From TrEMBL:
This is MOSC domain-containing protein. PROSITE patterns: MOSC. The lineage of its organism: Archaea, Methanobacteriati, Methanobacteriota, Stenosarchaea group, Halobacteria. GO terms for molecular function: catalytic activity; molybdenum ion binding; pyridoxal phosphate binding. It comes from Natronomonas salsuginis. Pfam families: MOSC, MOSC_N. InterPro entries: MoCF_Sase_C (IPR005302), MOCOS_middle (IPR005303), Pyrv_Knase-like_insert_dom_sf (IPR011037). It comes from the Archaea. Residues 139-304 form the MOSC domain.
Amino acid sequence: MAVSEWYGAHNVTDPEDADPHLATILRFPIKSLDPERRDRATLVADGALSGDRRWAIIDLPPEEPYDLTTANVGGNGDYVNGKKTDAVHRLRSRYHPREEGGPAVTLRAQAAPSTDERRFELHDGDRNRTEADVHADLNAWLSDHFGRPVHVRRDEVGQHDDRDRHGPTVISTATLREVAAWFDITTDSARRRFRANLEIGGVPPFWEDNLFADTGSVVAFRVGDAIIDGVHPCQRCVVPGRDPDTGATTPGFRETFVRRRRETLPPWTDCDRFDHPFRLMVNTRVPAESVGQRVAVGDAIEILEQKSV
C-alpha cells in the first residue's frame, strides 16, 4: 500500500492525525539469530535494549584463557553474521528465560529434522567459569554448522555493528507491509529481514522517517515515559535481500527496493542524511536521562523536537 493509499484506507488525511504507538518489541539475544518478542524492555547505556545482542558468534577460536577485556567487539568483520554467510539464516533459535532454567537457547539447523534440536546454556556473567568452558558444547555445535571454528562471546551492553548510533532501531508496521508487497512476501518475512527492535503502529508507511534530520541534529521522541534520539536512516546490506529461513537470494532485490523507495518517498524524508534510497529503519541513541527507563507495547509515541548535537 503506497503512502497516499494508506491515508485513504485508514480515513486519515494528514500525518498529524495518525496514532503512533509501540506495536512490537523485538530483541535479539544472539546477534544475527532469531529474535524474541517482548511485552516490555529496558533501555540501556551504550546499547539498545537490555539483553539485545548480548551474545555474538565470533569467527575466531577463543583465547585461552578467554579474556573479555581484550576481545574486539568493534564490528570490524569478526562477527559471524548474515553479511558474511547465508548459513546464519538456516539456524532457528528459541530462548529460555530464567524461569525456564535459562538463560539458555534451543538451536535447530533448518535442514535437519524438526526433532534434531539442542539446548545450550548461555554464559551470563558467572566469573567462576570462562566463556570458553561454559560454551564448549555450543561452540562445537556451531562450528560444525558453519564448517569452521567459531565461538560465542558475551558483552553485557550488546554487540552492535554501529558503535555510535547503537540505540534501539525503529521501523513502522506499515513500512514492513509496504515493502513486503513490493516482493510478494509476508509482513513477518519483511520483519525478520530488516530486524528492527521497535515497531510503530498507527502510522503510514515510512512515518519513522520523521525521526531523523539533517547532519548535526537529532530528533527527540517519546516512547511512554522514555526519550530516545533518532539519528540516522539505516543503510541496508545484503541481509534483507535473503529469505530469512533459507538464505536464498531474492532476485533483483536491491534494484527493486531502490526503485520503489524512490517512487514512494514521502515529503518528510527530505534531509541530507538520506543520501541514497537503499535506506530503511532509523538508528537511534539512548540519552543518559533515559537509561534504565522501560518501554512497553502500547506506549504512545510522540515526536518532541529537533535538537543540535
